[in-house]
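The following block was generated as part of the benchmark described in Methods. Ligand: flavin-adenine dinucleotide.
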Amino acid sequence: MKSMSGTEETAHRLAAVPSLHVSTCVPLSRYTRFGIGGPADIFAETGDPEAFVAAMNIARGSGLNFVVIGGGTNLIVSDDGFRGVALRFVATRLMAAGNRVVADAGAVLQDLVDFTITRGLKGLETLAGIPGWVGAAVYGNAGAYGHAISERVRSVRFLDGSEVRVFDREECEFQYRESIFKRRKDWIIFSTELILDPSDPADLARIAGDILKVRNEKFPPTMKCAGSIFKNFLLAELPGDVASAVPAKVVREGKVAAAYFLEQVGAKGMSRGDIHVADYHANLIYNDGHGTARDLCELIAVLKGRVRDRFGIEVEEEVQYVGLD
Ligand SMILES: Cc1cc2nc3c(=O)[nH]c(=O)nc-3n(C[C@H](O)[C@H](O)[C@H](O)COP(=O)(O)OP(=O)(O)OC[C@H]3O[C@@H](n4cnc5c(N)ncnc54)[C@H](O)[C@@H]3O)c2cc1C
């Protein structure tokens, strides 16, 4: 009798976990906003923390690689896909008690924003229109218009590889688009508790509505992209000569847009195959049809090289790689 491969055996063991949905050879392009990515050998998802812990134990014990993804709006997945187990934690509960809100990691961030606005809770309205789920928003400290989710996080419940633990905000070590979770790939966020301020729902809805209007023009909802490819720079962290040459009008909340440097090296309108840099935004790359991760990565490398050569600084990806590390 033919013996099972490690992948088959792992898929078999995962399939026995109650409440875990398991499939094999799943094209990850279906799960990324770029619409790019080859198959994951195994794809498993659940909204049940216990089932997720069991799945993680099996995945880790199998010796196969594993990756946890959310809504796939900030991912570049290899054209060859992912050799191992791709997992999603898909619980979506949102709960409010007074000005305290608890959100599961699989809830859509916009649903959380709307939930708080409807209840007259201020603090997340400037995050309106940021795609993706709550877990990844905490992982990458998502933000916009001068605010980030970390300002409102009171605690985060997560799996540290073996145990479920709770960190308060300080322990999460949030910084601009950073948290401790970004450095510990085996720490998986289950939920977060947020503290908000009472406010007028109509005011909050107006702020969010205005932001959504601007965002929908910049990032049409059908655009296959990841938002900004590169992180912006903190002015204080730029080399002195580079910082002093930056015009004051491009500095916002202590940051210099990566687009400012990219624009000067001719990024706007560049392309490789079906992958294009927007002609109106040098830090926005999109897939115009059948783009590949290969073209995308090549274009990113060219842009990084040009900025390095001209300014002596490294633009750093905000986007996360799967199967390409
Ligand atoms: C049009 C557009 C506009 C955007 N604008 C903004 C913006 O203004 N500000 C901003 O901050 N971002 C922006 N983004 C980027 C993106 O929306 C955020 O990074 C978002 O938080 C990603 O969420 P996701 O669920 O899609 O995560 P994914 O893309 O699926 O994953 C991103 C990372 O999070 C990790 N991850 C996912 N879930 C978990 C979990 N439960 N526990 C631990 N790690 C996890 C993954 O391993 C991966 O490394 C934009 C993206 C798009 C497409």
